[in-house]
Structure formats: C-alpha cells, structure tokens
From TrEMBL:
It comes from the Bacteria. Keywords: 4Fe-4S, Iron, Iron-sulfur, Metal-binding, S-adenosyl-L-methionine. This is TIGR01212 family radical SAM protein. It comes from Hallella faecis. CDD domains: Radical_SAM. Its cofactor is [4Fe-4S] cluster. InterPro entries: ELP3, Elp3/MiaA/NifB-like_rSAM, Radical_SAM_C, rSAM, rSAM_horseshoe, rSAM_sf, YhcC-like.
C-alpha cells in the first residue's frame, strides 16, 4: 500500500461500523473572539464546516439524534463518533468541556469522540482529563497545524507557531491519546518545494492520523480579498493529485491518511472549482498511484 487508509484503520478499531457525526457545541475560537484577533485565520469561514443538521441552537443530544436518524435509515447497525468540529472545541473552562463531552457520550450508540481544536487551546489540565476519558472511550484529538512554516502561519493570521503545534501533539501523544493533524496544501507563499520540505517535518511529529486539504478560497474571507487583489496560483485537480503523491511519499508509512481534499459548498468557493466529489478525487489519486507503480511501497 502506498498509504495507510483511514477507512481501513477505523474498521480495525471496532468490531462494528462507525460513522462520525458532526456537532456544533457552541464553542468559540480565540482567533475570532478577540483574545488573539477578531478576524480569524484568513481562509476560515466556519459556515463551510458544518453539515445542515449541525445547529448550535440545538442541544448536542438533539444534533446527534438527528445525525443518527439520517444514517440509521441506511445502516441500522451503525455506531457513532461525536465529532466536535466547528471552531475550537477545547476552548472553554474544564467543567464546560466535561459537560459537553459527557452529554455526547450519554447518547445511545455513541462510542467515542473526535475533538477538533487549535494547538494553543488545550491546557495541561484539559489534557489530563482527556487522558482519563481516553481510558474509558475511544478518543481522537485533532489539531489544526495548517503549515509547518511560521512565515506562512503569520501571513494567514493563524495566531500560533509551528512549535506550538509540535508541543501540543507531543503532549497528547505522551498521554496515549490518538492525535490527528490537519494541513492545508497550497497556502499563499508556499511553493511545491516548500510543501514537500514540510512533509518530512510533519512526518517526524508523533501523529497517528493526518488530514490534507487543498486550499479553498471561500467568498467573503480575508483570503478572498487577498486573492482578488493579488491573485496567486491555485492548483488544478491534476496538479494537486501529483503534489499529494509526492507529499505522501515523504511521509512515514505508518501514518494513517484520513483525507486529501475538502469540499465546501460550491456556491461559496471562488477557487479552485474542480467539480469533483471527495470519492472521485480519491479515485483519481488511486488511479495515478497505480499508473506510477507506487501502490506497493
Ligand atoms: S480556522 Fe479554526 S482557528 Fe482559524 S479562525 Fe477558524 S475556527 Fe478559528
């Protein structure tokens, strides 16, 4: 196998099928609420995070029940992971975190949590609690790294450094927590050489899972304004397939790869407009890997 695929890996973790259900647990983000900045990361529009059943006006339980009802029609035996996805899901006092995570775990057939957050938003106290939680349920902590280059992180107004990501990942890993990292390929100021250089840096982190996304320029974001004023190169689907293959070939091969692309609603995207569904992209990628004879590394 050229890469270790998440869907196979997750099937090995449970004796039944599991599906993630996104919940919007009404957290905020220090890069939006003024603690770090009000503007957020330049690429960010949180409206692109959530499927339609996510609504912070509804309780966590209700969101999960609605998500379950959606999937249970097709797969009645399915069990679920509550995916705390929108904003920074450890950015609150510990008691609030406990209440929200416990509410999700109390829902029937929810067998674990996936908690997405910023690397500068997880206190040692919260990590100690997550370590305990990890003893009694399935848990993944997912960190937005986005880039390993501090100049890029400044340019996209990320509000933390790469070393902050490194330290957060090490601390979670030392506590035995499965950690996932999220990277964006194609950020302004990064050429292919720079991205490939970063791949080996990312590969040295004690991560279990990696998610790659192509940069998407979303209407109304600061990045959209930057792109309009000073257009920069955005990958075609073919260029991105080739980049991903070169990027993945720099990674250690026990790293589980969960995704390669993201799909924001087409009416919100300025560029790139590939018109491909996620699975169609993965098919293209796998076809190219076979053509190159890389399917057995
Ligand atoms: S991408 Fe995440 S960290 Fe950045 S502004 Fe949006 S919610 Fe906050």
């Amino acid at each position: 196998m050229f890469y270790k695929d998440y869907s196979h890996w997750i099937r090995e973790q449970f004796p039944f099928r599991v599906q993630k259900i996104s919940v919007d647990a009404a957290f905020s983000c220090p890069n939006r609420d003024g603690r770090l900045s009000l503007g957020g990361c330049t690429f960010c529009d949180n409206k692109t995070f959530n499927p339609s059943y996510c609504d912070r006006g509804k309780s966590i339980t209700q969101q999960l029940e609605e998500g379950k009802a959606f999937f249970a029609k097709k797969y009645p035996e399915m069990k679920y992971l509550a995916y705390f996805q929108a904003y920074s899901n450890t950015y609150a006092p510990l008691e609030e975190l406990k209440r929200k995570y416990e509410e999700a775990l109390a829902v029937d057939n929810v067998v674990g949590l996936v908690i997405g957050t910023r690397p500068d938003c997880v206190s040692d106290e919260a990590l100690d609690y997550l370590q305990q939680l990890n003893q009694r349920t399935f848990l993944i902590v997912e960190y937005g790294i986005e880039s390993a280059n501090d100049n890029t992180l400044r340019r996209i107004n990320r509000g933390h450094t790469f070393d902050c990501s490194r330290q957060a990942i090490i601390k979670a890993h030392q506590r035995g927590i499965i950690t996932c990292g999220h990277i964006i390929l194609g950020l302004p100021g990064e050429d292919e050489e720079e991205m490939l250089h970063q791949a080996s840096t990312i590969s040295q982190l004690p991560l279990d899972i990696l998610k790659l996304h192509q940069l998407q320029i979303i209407k109304g974001t600061p990045l959209a304004k930057e792109y309009e004023a000073h257009p920069f190169h955005v990958f075609s689907a073919e260029e991105y397939v080739n980049l991903v293959i070169r990027y993945v070939s720099q990674l250690r091969n026990d790293l589980v790869l969960e995704r390669f692309v993201s799909q924001s609603p087409p009416n919100m995207v300025i560029a790139p407009k590939w018109g491909l569904k996620n699975h169609e992209f993965t098919d293209l990628l796998n076809k190219r890997i076979r053509e190159l004879g890389y399917d057995h590394r």
